[in-house]
Amino acid sequence: MSKSSQRSPFGWSNRGGNNVTVIEAPVARSYRRRAVIAFWVTLGVVGLLAATVASEYMHPILGGLLGVVLGAVLGAVVFALIVAWPVLRVFWHWLPEILLGLAGVYGWTTVMQSTPLWGSLLIVALAVGVPAAIAPVRRRVMSWIWCLVVRHRLRMCFAAFIATNRHGSLPLILPAQPTPAGERVWVWLRPGLSLRDLEQDGQMQKLAVACWANEVRVMRAGRKYAALIRIDITRREPLAGKVVSPLPDYVPTDMPANAPTSPGMPPVGLDLPDVPDQPATTPADTPRQRKPRNNPTTASPAGFDPSDYA
Fold first, then answer.
1. CA 241, 244, 248, 249: dihedral to nearest 10 degrees?
2. Which of 42, 34, 35 minimizes the C-alpha distance to 70?
3. DSSP string across 148-189
């Protein structure tokens, strides 16, 4: 094993036991390199600007020292944020579960301190049993649970078989919401990964298998940012279900047999084979009547003289 693989992301040794590394060593080295560069850039820019402004109000030497101190402090903050970003990203992916766990622990503690034991058990039974007994509430809760599951499944897909950039930066999984057909997740792609990479042959099927879904569709979430994409996960077909129509309830049951019908409806009870066929033919010996033509040479009606209009 190489020396680099025996180090944790923050420089701690893993030789003593079978420790699990949350962040890979190449990714950690890349972030440390960028953090060092960001520290020196922040120190130089902020220190120079702060020293220039402070020199207008105090001695130039004191102003220069104050600028260096401010630049070092801000540079250290930037350094810490960049180095800790891989770990912060893990906390972001598990943020709903962490908040739910904290709410459950502190909520149970508050209930136990303010009510007796039987009251606490009754509140917990109502909080769990009522949503489980009411079907619409139960389906709504399960849809939000599937949103949490899908976010982690997509994160595993991006880490397993979807290409990343050369620094190993994975896309950022944004919030998810339930839809009538399944779930919808927004993802922010990092440089080196595009929508076309996700649309390659076989990628959609792999995403569907990993998310335990029927179908997965990927598209852009808007026209402004190409990095923001939307993943629609289909688990069921909402249009394939039966819809109960209330229209038959409005049809009267005591309708008479001779009730008038709409002109557009065909007659009911008519046996067409019993109707004799009568072709509409014109007799050949009937002479065709010609229309009279208006001949100016013919005689005009009585009392009319065309010369009066000449």
1. 170
2. 42
3. HHHHHHHHHHHHHTS---TT-PPPEEEEEEE-SSEEEEEEEP
pLDDT digits (tens, 9 = 90+) for 60-73: 888 888 888 999 99
Alpha-carbon span 228 to 235, nearest angstrom: 23
- Residue 250's identity, in one-letter code, is Y
CA 228 – CA 195 distance, rounded (Å) = 9
Interior/surface letters 136-163, b for 16+ CB within 10 angstroms, e for the rest: eeeeeeebeebbeebbebbbebbeeebe
Q: How many CA atoms lie within 13 A of 154 on its CB side?
A: 32
Distance separating alpha carbons of residues 127 and 213, to the nearest angstrom = 30
CB 151 within 8 A of CB 176: yes
What is the spatial distance between Cα 61 and Cα 12, in angstroms, rounded to a whole number? 40
Choose between 259 and 245: higher pLDDT.
Answer: 245
Is there a contact between 83 and 35 (Cβ–Cβ < 8 Å)? yes
